[in-house]
Amino acid sequence: MFTLHNAMKKQKNTGETKSVTPPNTKVTTVADKKTLRIIALCCAMLSFLLYANTLGHEYTVDDGTVIENNKITKKGISAIPEIFSTSYRKGFWDRNEGLYRPLSVAMFAIEWELAPKNPWPGHLMNVILFALTVYLLFMSLASIFKEYSLFVPIFAAVLLQFIPYILK
């Protein structure tokens, strides 16, 4: 009969670095893929629900300089080539700044094209992307810690959602 003790003993005697898993035995993980997806989806839904209250908010902070009062962003999709060759707030002021965030501004231009003067699509996109981030964080950590407890992936996914509330 093959036992783990015999395998380790044999490994010690021969100096080999072979696996100590008996042949034809499957290493069991904490949860199957379906269960992991369900838990990840629950974490993502929690994050969506926590931040869904932002859907009714107006533009805020630097949105005035980058979206509402920006001549380039307000051109919509046609401005995307220009956005990728200019600074972050170009179109609001002509100050020479080193801030370069073309993906954000291009997304703002697309949102403006689809719904001018309406912050709701942008807020919805942010909430969806955050929920997706929580989902991917959980799945990544569950993959890394697959032989162990699900505590770390669940804790990290939930903690990420509550950090703004904790830091207040």
Task: Describe the structure in your own words.
The protein is an all-alpha fold and 168 residues long. It has 2 domains: 76 residues; 61 residues, no CATH class. It is elongated and about 55 Å long.
Main sheet makeup: none
Distance between the termini: 60 Å
Overall pLDDT score: 85
> How much helix is in the residues?
55-70%
- Counting structural domains, the number is 2
Helical segment count: 7
Cα-atom radius of gyration: 25 Å
Order of helices and strands: HHHHHHH
**Which overall shape is indicated by the principal axes computed on the Cα atoms?**
elongated
Low-pLDDT ranges: none
What is the gist of this entry?
The chain is 56% helix and 0% strand.
Chain-wise SSE layout:
Layout: H1 4-14, H2 33-51, H3 63-68, H4 80-83, H5 102-114, H6 120-144, H7 151-166
Task: Provide key terms for this protein.
168 residues; mainly alpha; 2 domains
